[in-house]
Amino acid sequence: MTGYDWIVLTLGFVHDLSVAVYVGGAVAMEFVLAPAQASIPPAQAQIMGEKTSNRFLVLVWSSLALILITGVLRLQMNGMLNSDGLSMADSYGRTLWTMFFLWVVLAINGGLITFIFRPTLQGKLQPGSNQALVTRDRDAKMKAATWIQHLTRADLVLAIIVTLLGASLSRGGLF
After folding, report:
1. Which pLDDT tens digit goes with each residue over 145-164?
2. First vs last Cα of the chain: how many Å apart?
3. Residue 79 and which of 6, 71, 102, 113 are 20 to 30 A apart at CA?
4. What are the distances in angstroms from CA 67 to CA 40, 74, 100, 164?
5. How many helices (H) and strands (E) does the chain have?
6. 146: which residues sit within 8 A by CB, 6+ positions away?
7. Could you tell me if 93 and 85 are in contact, meaning their C-beta atoms sit under 8 angstroms apart?
8. Cα separation of 149 and 136, whole Å?
9. What is the C-alpha to C-alpha distance for residues 142 and 151, in angstroms, rounded to an integer?
10. Computed over its alpha carbons, how large is the radius of gyration of the chain?
11. Could you tell me the residue ranges of all domains in the chain?
12. pLDDT over 70 percentage in the chain
């Protein structure tokens, strides 16, 4: 095996591992963590959710970055960035562009969760807050939690679709 072969093998391994971490983490969050949180008191569920999501977000963002970087490097090493490999004229190119578009959607959803909705969940009221402020804060937190739940479920479905599209590339693509 040449040095080039090792690089291609390593890129493929890191790429596939990153996809597995992303999809596996999404499955674990949806089918393991969410039901566990529903079975414990709300205050404990909030703490559990905050601690696990802090760690999970590191994995999510690392995985998304590695998926993009290794995907582009793999295309470059296969000479596809310098040719018609990304052409919309063939199935392979259309599948790659669809995967990239869905990756962008995953990144946008991650940004919404990380930078918009999670900070809403973490805000605390000042002592002596009036009832109207308490009600408004509670409603905002519930709305943010609902959005996070919807976005994470959509991410799970999209991640599975992207994974299947990636697998179809070995047969020339899907579309």
Report:
1. 899 999 999 999 999 999 99
2. 34
3. 102
4. 35, 10, 10, 15
5. 6, 0
6. none
7. yes
8. 20
9. 14
10. 20
11. 3-171
12. 97
